[in-house]
Amino acid sequence: MEIPKNLSNLKFCRIKRGTKKPFEKDWTNKHYSFDEISKFKNENYGVHCGINNLGVIDSDNEALQTAVENLLPKTYRIKTGGGGVHNYFFIKDLYQKLILETETGTHLGEVQWKGQQVVGPGSIHPNGKTYEELNQEPITEISAELIYENFKPFIKQLRETEQTVAWEKKQGSEIDDLSVANIWGTVGLVSNDKGEYYGSHPIHGSDGGTNFWINPSKNMWHCFRCQSGGGVLSAIAVKEGIIECNQARAGALRGSKAFECIELAHQKYGLLRTEPIINYEESKQEQDEIKIIWEHELPSYIEEDKEWIIDRLIPSKSIVITTGKRGTLKTFVTLLMAYSVATGEDFLGKFSTRKGGVLYLDKENGIGIMKKRTAMLRKGLEIEGKFPIGFICFSQLKLDKLGSMMLIEKAVKEHKPALLIVDTYRRSVGYDENDAGKVSELFVDTLRPLVEKYNLSIILIHHNRKGGYGESPDEMDELRGSSDLANYADIILKMERNRNSLILKQLKNRNAEESKPIKIKTDFNEEENYVKLVYDGEYMKQSQADKCVEILEIWIAENKTTQFKTKDAKEIAFKKGVKETNFKHALEIMQNAGLVKKEGFGLYSVINSQQNEN
Ligand SMILES: [Zn+2]
Question: Which residue, among 307, 406, 428, has the nearest Cα to 360 in the 3D structure?
């Protein structure tokens, strides 16, 4: 068998006669020269691709072959034993084998490159036919770009990148307003008449030619060296070093990496934060047709019945702040709200609920603590089963970051919760809590539209200011941070401790009169691992005398006092701001209740409660 002179500068591998595959184990690294391979007279042989830039378009399809002949220059061609054609080219800057197929996935052929071989002319196919020269043309040199240009719609790897673009679009809506071409920049790239850009990869470069392509109309980029690419998200990710170029494929950008890209989209690439996260079209229409109620209509006007998620405490479409000092079981009470809504059972056994799902954005506790708390509540409620309460224990989500809000909105859209709980407000925003402008932005531009659009209520768990014992004239002032926080919330619920029970106060109700403070009986048992919270009647505000009784009781207990002088007790009470008349009244109350006994002038003894019980 004569090997054509056309192949004299190439490298070869050994193949047994009548077969197609090299038989030497290490064939990819064994490069026989023309003279060496010519010695094996009774064998087939393969031509190494990717060496000396040899690329062979292996066409299994007539239409593809016609395209190759029409679109690429004349070159050396071999008719294969199987009926296809091998088109030999020297291709500059091809980095990887290309697979060619139709849109529906029908295989058309390949551009064979490194690690591949093609069976050479003169060899015998397993079906007995010979690989034959179709012409004697020399092998022509072309650029990889010419192949990309002409066969783009059929290159499988590019179609995979298109799928990546589609996947990325699903991840982050508005970010696609940015242009891939702007992110990468087009300086140093060459554009063609279709507005596409070709050139050397901006990050890892090329070995001298084209390996990078941007299609602005598809808002897509592709790297031919790594056979990777995508849209805006991955362009930012690769440019900023969040992922390597060869990692840019569908599914690569999840979670924190996606957040990072979205944040950079704001900070460096001009994605506007003020852009509405929510489609405002519906609310705009409402604004266009303003409804006027005339004065004479008012007497007969029937107000829309406010729908409650938790009767009298939390209306639907509202923003609620729950607050309280440490030790007021704030999280437990809020979690109980979640269970009440998720099960449709009455909250505290008293307030009816509208059944619905709950999303809990936990930035404070972590899975371990939530696991323990939910177990305690379940046991206390004596419930078992599956409830639609979802926890998001992901520390990077921030309510004032567009990227985070897009993900939160996506979750809301998908799971349609009635309640979104944010634990805590403070940890969920990045701004200074005294920044009134930012507070306003969060409530007006972000939370309010979310609440309206998805018929959702949001509970923000918040802390009271530290210190400040004793009641300030306005309890709302105790909320930490900007006073606007209290202004923008629809409902403010405050938890307080009162001896063995909790008091739940509604400090503010935008739509109705505040409901009366209630007492919650707490049965908190860490050993038995349960917590029970039950309605315990309305809470009556303490009189000043009652308050003095409490002060004296604490003083007696702390000092284990058995006897005391009136003037010592008075001193304690006065220090706490109690007035003379209330002090006297308090001593009367204590005597009547059998707590103390008057022993003589200015002297009282304490009645031991244990003796009393006996
Ligand atoms: Zn690359």
Answer: 428
Question: Domain 5-144 is of which CATH architecture?
Answer: 2-Layer Sandwich (3.30)
CA distances from 487 to 31, 124, 400 (A): 79, 87, 18
In angstroms, what is the span from residue 223 Cα to ligand 1's centroid?
5
Residue 170's pLDDT band (cuts 50, 70, 90): confident
Distance in Å, CA 213 to ligand 1 centroid: 10
CATH 1.10.10.980 fits 544-613, yes or no: yes
Amino acid at 306: K
Residue 155 CA to ligand 1 center (angstroms) comes to 16
Q: For residue 165, what pLDDT is reported?
A: 87
Contact (CB, 8 A) for 275 and 192:
no
In this structure, what are the phi and psi dihedrals at residue 396, rounded to the nearest 5 degrees? -90, -10
The residues, any chain, with a CB within 8 Å of residue 551's CB and separated by 6 or more, are 572, 573, 576, 578
Helices and strands (DSSP H and E) totals, the chain:
18, 29
Annotate 4-36 with b (16+ C-beta within 10 A) or e (fewer).
Answer: eebbeebbbbbbeeeebebeeeebeeeebeeee
CA of 207 to the centre of ligand 1 (A): 12
- Cα separation, 317 vs 457, in Å, equals 5
Q: 525: which strand partners? A: 530
The pLDDT of 398-407, averaged and rounded, is 80
Dist. CA 228 → ligand 1 center (Å): 6
Q: Tell which CATH architecture fits domain 156-267.
A: Alpha-Beta Complex (3.90)
Mean pLDDT score across all residues of the chain: 85
In the chain, what are the domain boundaries? 5-144, 156-267, 308-466+474-538, 544-613
Distance 219 CA to ligand 1 centre (A): 17
Tell me how far apart the alpha carbons of residues 191 and 214 are, in angstroms, rounded to a whole number. Answer: 9
Strands 319-324 and 314-315: unpaired
Residue with tokens 């002949």: 69
CATH class, domain 308-466+474-538, is alpha beta
Higher per-residue confidence, 444 vs 327: 444
Measure 177 CA to ligand 1 centroid, in angstroms.
24
Measured in Å, residue 141 CA sits from the centre of ligand 1 at: 24
CB neighbours of 116 closer than 8 A, spacing ≥ 6?
Answer: 49, 50, 56, 97, 110
Q: Which two tokens stand for residue 352?
A: 């009816």
